[in-house]
Amino acid sequence: MQNWTFKTTDGIALHVREIGAGRPLILLHGYFSEADTNWIKYGHAAVLAEAGFRVIMPDLRAHGLSDKPHDPIHYPKDILANDQFALIDHLGLGDFDLGGYSLGGRTVARMLAKGCTPRRVVISGMGLEGLSDTGKRAGHFRHVLENLGKHERGSPAFMAEAFLKTTGGDPVALLRILDTFVDTPEDVLRSFDFPIGVICGDADSDNGSAAALAELVPRGQLITVPGNHMSAVIKAELGLAIRDFLLEEGI
């Protein structure tokens, strides 16, 4: 496992983990999470590296070991997508695959909307509403972060706060991330002419309907794995589904 950092366009340092050699695959983690928890801890990165991928896993701005500035100037609209364009430029990548989970999947969609041209795409832990109407999910997390320590035990907000504690997230920086969200309208999603694996837990509707998203994008393929939005990440089937989709012939 290699660990390195680079500075993106506004001087923010992003931490990157990398494993494997072969075809480049950029994987983006979810909100409150980081590369280690989303991709490494439960074996997904290792499975993909063994399948012949060079797995490149940045910690998104305000997450993990990347910088977590508090100044709003560092959180313009679409900055997460722009950070990944800077990463691609830094590495000199021309032919690569691209995937993300939850917030990572939303960031992938924004990259496609802004002209990114990967070979194949994985959008996981994400449904249509989570891309076309980001305000609902942003509102949920704003409520979580602005009321820490006050959530009813067992509620979705309580569980989100518990996860935040396990990853050591910075609440101020994470609130700023919500201000960067941009909706991706359905007509833009229909223009995504790439093989897109929409991979989602069979009990996950946190970001709307994955089936509706897979049906909307021209070359979408719905792939379900066991679990809900949180538990699907810890199951081996997620990494295996990503691997199998990226290696599938004839799509």
From TrEMBL:
The answer to keyword Secreted applying to this record is: no
**InterPro entries for this protein:** AB_hydrolase_1, AB_hydrolase_fold, Carboxylesterase_BioH
Asked if the keyword Hydrolase belongs to this entry, the reply reads yes
Pfam families in the record? Abhydrolase_1 (PF00561)
AB hydrolase-1 domain residues are: 24-121
PANTHER family per the UniProt record, alphabetical? HYDROLASE ALPHA/BETA FOLD FAMILY (PTHR43194), PEROXISOMAL MEMBRANE PROTEIN LPX1 (PTHR43194:SF2)
Report the protein name in the record: Alpha/beta fold hydrolase
The organism of origin for this protein: Sphingorhabdus pulchriflava
